[in-house]
From TrEMBL, chains A, B:
<protein>
    <submittedName>
        <fullName>Neopullulanase</fullName>
        <ecNumber>3.2.1.135</ecNumber>
    </submittedName>
</protein>
<dbReference type="GO" id="GO:0005975">
    <property type="term" value="P:carbohydrate metabolic process"/>
</dbReference>
<dbReference type="InterPro" id="IPR006047">
    <property type="entry name" value="GH13_cat_dom"/>
</dbReference>
<feature type="domain" description="Glycosyl hydrolase family 13 catalytic">
    <location>
        <begin position="14"/>
        <end position="389"/>
    </location>
</feature>
<dbReference type="Pfam" id="PF00128">
    <property type="entry name" value="Alpha-amylase"/>
</dbReference>
<dbReference type="InterPro" id="IPR017853">
    <property type="entry name" value="GH"/>
</dbReference>
<dbReference type="InterPro" id="IPR013780">
    <property type="entry name" value="Glyco_hydro_b"/>
</dbReference>
<keyword id="KW-0378">Hydrolase</keyword>
<keyword id="KW-0326">Glycosidase</keyword>
<dbReference type="GO" id="GO:0031216">
    <property type="term" value="F:neopullulanase activity"/>
</dbReference>
Amino acid sequence: MTTPDWAKHAVFYQIFPDRFARSGAVEAQEAVQLTPWGTPPAEQGFQGGDLYGIVDRLDYLDALGVTALYLNPIFASAANHRYHTYDYYEVDPLLGGTDALRALLDAAHARDMRVVLDGVFNHASRGFWPFHHVLENGPDSPYVDWFKIEDWPLRPYASDQPHNYAAWYDIPALPELNTDHPPVQDFLLDVARHWIAFGIDGWRLDVPREIETDGFWEAFRTVVKDANPEAYLVGEIWDEAPAWLQGDRFDGLMNYPLLDATLGFFGAGSLRDYSKAHLTFDPIDAPAFADELDRLLALYEWEATCAQLNLLDSHDMARAQWILNNNPAAFRQAVLFLMTMPGAPCIYYGDEIGLSAAGDPHCREAFPRDDADWDTDLLSFYQAATALRHRHEVLRTGRIEVLHASGRTLVLRRTLADATALVAFNAGADAVQVALEAAALPTKPLSSAWPPSANAPLSASSSPLPLSLPPRATRVWTTD
Amino acid sequence: MTTPDWAKHAVFYQIFPDRFARSGAVEAQEAVQLTPWGTPPAEQGFQGGDLYGIVDRLDYLDALGVTALYLNPIFASAANHRYHTYDYYEVDPLLGGTDALRALLDAAHARDMRVVLDGVFNHASRGFWPFHHVLENGPDSPYVDWFKIEDWPLRPYASDQPHNYAAWYDIPALPELNTDHPPVQDFLLDVARHWIAFGIDGWRLDVPREIETDGFWEAFRTVVKDANPEAYLVGEIWDEAPAWLQGDRFDGLMNYPLLDATLGFFGAGSLRDYSKAHLTFDPIDAPAFADELDRLLALYEWEATCAQLNLLDSHDMARAQWILNNNPAAFRQAVLFLMTMPGAPCIYYGDEIGLSAAGDPHCREAFPRDDADWDTDLLSFYQAATALRHRHEVLRTGRIEVLHASGRTLVLRRTLADATALVAFNAGADAVQVALEAAALPTKPLSSAWPPSANAPLSASSSPLPLSLPPRATRVWTTD
């Protein structure tokens, strides 16, 4: 299989559009009552973030080392998260409408930044026009086969009786689309094609496993790649799913299993009692982490592994800082781990300035406007961490091996052609010495690449090579 | 006041889009189950007429003498009549979508045919996205002021409890727009401007009296005329409404009062027992008809009178043929009366081939595909009648006077500069002789203009001039 090269080299930034930045330039917002920016997030309430606001922040994102955006849904929706789509062909008016997406794509592409949208194709909203059509016309509606209806009359809004059609998670607001009905497939494939042709660089696919129609996702890939062979397809699948990364469906998955182990290893000792779906965030030591890493790396072809979307958190879970009980050292090591792994790291908006919050809806808070409210040290750290990844191709697509795993210490080697990197983590509270075999080291000299201020080369002159790692230290050496 | 010249000279044709012509070219129709073409019309059911179908029929309409189309609503809607709008910025997909309107406008304009759309701005549908928004978010929705909501939670679909928001005619499917809320005004004015800029030639305004917001219709006129000074604005007001035709709102009204008197006079003796709104279709004689004509002509400035939309029926009432109990002579005289009146005659689709049906939904039947099902004699008559109007400007914009009204006989004079026309109707079953004063006749000779085959000029050589009118005869003489 082949996956888009740009994705392997990307640093993603995930944006929850209602909460990242408000431009003040959206006329449709004049017409409505918004919740003030910074209100503690609740299930309802729009705070007025918009796509022009993202355009205004592109300098900031550039400086952060971001090369690709992943936006939570932006199509017309009555939900602040916009997973309840009512019009798949229009960007939500409160986000600035389709013109604002045009502006964002043009501005992002002008700086070689890509934009991936969230595709929600398993279910629509009660306000999606074909559902409205069925609601108004009952069995006489020509759209009756677009949904999975159990009996009549439909009850989408009855508080005292259950809904009587298939709905995602049994939420009446989210009628499932009948993807077994060919016209529905045609509709969704046209939406997929339409926005790729409009200029987006890929799709993150929401709950794709719930669409079980034979051949749907294969057809989806064909349509998308025909429109743009470089488009990136990443699925929201929370566990291992080798069948989905064999070249005929997605390029990568949201790498939740890696996230679970990453926070479990670097956060061991300070983890909150938190779980989400099948992620349990159990404390693990380096050997267990190394085993899990080996297991995960063996699941997929290398092309897919390099195109995974590696993350520490998302809009669907507590922020990593919060799970780590705001342990800054653990958090920074987890960030560096992501920046030195194959697979594209994805920063959830605001993590880089210290946002820390429990799960949905808390983790969807407004990005603070005033930088006095930012952790600017953390922001500088993030900038340096993404720069490290961008500087060394070997950290992005070099083959990976565990050289050493014991206690709280993990040493990894990355190799790409004649380039080598050593990446060492001491996640413990005590200094450690690791003795590396000289044979594990390249003949070319290794310069220090991390921390940015360090200037301690590593050479294979003595064997075994003693590696000194202070408490909570991360060290990277590279030959290039 | 000034009104668009083209409207004064137009022959309109009103189309109920789901039922006029099906092109077979609308892909969205492949996705749905349609009711077969020609099914007796019911409240629900789509038969698949579309805008490309109208394009296919433009030769037919040209030959009929039609120079302007008035289309019942075409924006996205879950109702076959499409008065329940869910998206004001999209043409309904089953009609071919916005691309089909582009094609229709281009094809119509290429033959100097105008297109007027139906604007439904007092109310939307339950599926209109801001209403959906309020439904999903309750009092937290930023669109809460767009409607007139009485309490929470909203009950748009509860069968056992009344709805709790203002709705047109208390129909829960039709929430009223709160036009007192400035953003709603801005929205509607933008819709008005948008489609005029897109290329339509005017708006027929649905139930305009129900929008009582001060200055709304004045602003509407300004926006529309700014976008196209030649745009035509015609209001659906069923009775007299001089305040609406003073130059600051509409150019004309749907002339239902004239329709009532016209069918009452020409149909006297064969009228069915039918009424609609305040139209009672009472049989009247020529003096009563002449009085009503004089009264109606005195209501408005001449500019407005010439821009009235004169009709015999519409989608909102029984067809004229049916009201007249299929009396062909009465029907043809009524048609000729409209063709010789100031104000643009409007043919309701299918009247010209003999469709005859009771009120809604029956009068919204599919136009027969097979011309074996047409009354082709009637069609030829219509072609001749529109040609008569087009041939003689005096019949369109000439001043009008009643020369004679007695029993079942009415004689009218039209004058425009040095042109004169005499129009005489004998709506009775007996031949009559009318003695016209020579002073009432022009010095220029009068040639016979109707019936088409006649060749009997009229001259003022003798006085009084005896005018012989056979039973149910219509005669027209003109100087030009």
